[in-house]
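Posting for a labmate who doesn't have an account.
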Amino acid sequence: MSVPPIHLIGVPMDCGKRRQGCLMGPDAYRTAGLQAALADLGHSVDDRGNVAPDPYSETPDAHLHARDETVAWTTALSRTAAKAAATGLPIFMGGDHALALGTVHGVAAHAASVDRALFVLWLDAHTDYHTPATTASGNLHGTPMGYATGRDGFDGFPAVVHPVPHDRIAMLGLRSVDAPERAAVQATDVTYIDMRHIDEHGIAKPLAAFLDRVQAADGMLHVSLDVDFLDPSIAPAVGTTVPGGATLREAHLVMEMICDSGRLTSLDLVELNPFLDERGRTAQVMVDLVASAFGRRVFDRPTRAY
């Protein structure tokens, strides 16, 4: 697979929810050897350090948690993502999932600038399709897909000039969706695949169908990988554990199929909370999954002793 230069970008963002720890994620990926794993596969990799939010002043909000800080991160990340996507393949090492408010916004702007269709593969237990008005928790890490598709209610956030069309989004691994989100998503053309569907039909067929659509459109593919896509028995370092997630083998198959497609143009790694990990186990699993997305195969995987 021919891959442009890979840009590792740390996003120590921890304002999308109240439970802290995701700000340590970027350094955990570095410690777990993400750069070396990709370089060993023959890729050109540079670590661009950590992004910082734009200046902000937090005004207390009765409902939303850290709204102004999240806006500041979104504007900074959108600029960073658009710039990085123009020169290589950015991997955003998070950080909580609110970072996708900025990363998807930025890569969508880049895709529009080169007249390419952007597709989004959302690997997550949740749809994250809320708006600031519909989220019951007030945690903005549950809103990035609502924002990226142009839903109303994101006052103060950068305007969504290039919303991602619903029919270019696939959500895989769903198993914890609020009723308002479920109703809203079901009224769209989003491809949503929950774990029952995966149990009954497997994970490869729906993913292959989506990747075929990306290929037919000569599209760009942004993948947003949440730790809670995985079953917590293999990836415990996440504050939103939901039993019944993807197995290690299913997750590697997904990443290998993404690699085979040759369509990956940007990647989020989100919700890793090293404070909750077991001797770096989850960070290493995530690094191994990224390696599968960039060419490592079953026979190539090292033996791990956690």
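Reply:
Got it, the structure tokens are right above this. The CA atoms of residues 7 and 155 lie 31 Å apart.
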